[in-house]
């Protein structure tokens, strides 16, 4: 199959081309109300496009189309669905540059270090899940010799997916790829800060998928997200976002008695023991704090515990690494660090930095703001490494979602584990040591759903991902996620007498 949609690697013209549309039942359509809202380039403050402002009428149209399409989609052999999803992945692979440049424009994430990489992971996720279609199988149960007892996996129905703005491509893929391979149809509500690139993905995929299988809406939470969760045709919700909104979504889903998957954020600890490879640990911290993404990551290493013997050297090296990173135009190949997503988020981060200073912490600012006059209105901020800060200070305990990390000094093993676990979150953690016994014990005792030793990888397909405590419910990115969260198990018994 040859794509009919021509590639467009000019993100500015592509943003205008996509402006003002949802994609429902295979068609690019305007909002029922005719309303739109602005899409702004956070690097310059300039409007680059518009998004359709969805409401309950748009949700009803999309959910109805998805329910209608699901009847035929679930009846298609699983491997045939998998082939179509894998073909979507192949086409998205060909569009990595186009998608990477557009997501850099609307989110402010640097193209070279972040956005192009995210577009590649997006494509890989669809190829990965397309290949898992044959794993949608049940079991034979040795219940009674005179009865043939089997289980089968069946799709849930229509899945409503609400995605965030920080990595919209990857997190959308990890929700909808397993859902549609399993035989569900989906309605996605995009983040209002980043609605255009995900719409382009949907447009490309709708060349391959039957109409109604993948629908996407843009809009705000109360007007568009809430009606999606409560719509009677929606049988499952998968959500990534804040704890506060996640609780609202969970309560609404509970009223309907439908399953929900929640990924709600974290305050992820990084523990560096005295025997760790210092250079490797510092590089891991640079990756872990997500400096290149301006710290806008739920797995960001925002609490770093370093043994007293190496603490000062670690901090000096970490600051030097961050200082060497260039902040600038996200579309410039020389840029390492882009912008914060929005004015509100920038002010939130600035507020937390001030709270840390007021609490007695030392704020070590890193890198340098861009000097280009064209970027003077951009939402740039210097990353901050806090030292000498109390464990009870707001930056130490609350999720900031910005380029701020707190470095603590420790000497006692039991005390550092207790400190690392002293959080309402439990998403991710890393341990840095060359002692196998320490690594084995620490990973067993750390209260987190995604724990790594001597590395700090981001989420990728085939790595089961999800948290505990207030970091959420359920898993993503794996075969387990597809089976447990996008199918239900039916037991069938044949009486053989």
What is the gist of this entry?
The protein has helices at 11-18, 56-75, 78-93, 96-107, 111-130, 168-181, 196-205, 221-230, 243-256, 278-288, 311-323, 343-358, 394-397, 413-421, 436-445, 479-486, and strands at residues 22-24, 27-29, 36-41, 46-52, 140-144, 147-155, 158-162, 185-189, 214-217, 236-240, 260-263, 269-272, 303-307, 362-365, 384-387, 404-410, 425-426, 428-432, 450-453, 468-469, 472-473, 487-495.
Search tags:
497 residues, alpha/beta, Aldehyde Dehydrogenase, Chain A, domain 1, Aldehyde Dehydrogenase, Chain A, domain 2, seven-stranded mixed beta sheet, 16 helices, globular
Outline the structure in words:
Helix 4 (96-107) runs antiparallel to helix 7 (196-205). This protein is α/β, with parallel strands linked by helices and 497 residues long. The N and C termini lie far apart (51 Å). The chain folds into two domains: 11-264 and 471-492, Aldehyde Dehydrogenase, Chain A, domain 1; 269-461, Aldehyde Dehydrogenase, Chain A, domain 2 (3-Layer(aba) Sandwich). It is 39% helix and 21% strand.
**What percentage of residues falls in helices of 4 or more residues?**
25-40%
Structural class, from helix and strand content? alpha/beta
CATH architecture descriptor name of the largest domain: 3-Layer(aba) Sandwich
Query: Number of helix segments?
Result: 16
Mean pLDDT: 98
Rg for CA atoms: 23 Å
Count structural domains.
2
Residue stretches low in confidence (pLDDT < 50, at least 5 long) are none
Distance between the termini: 51 Å
Largest sheet: 7 strands, mixed
Shape: globular
Pfam families: Aldedh (PF00171)
Domain Aldehyde dehydrogenase: 31-492
Keywords: Oxidoreductase
Active site: 263
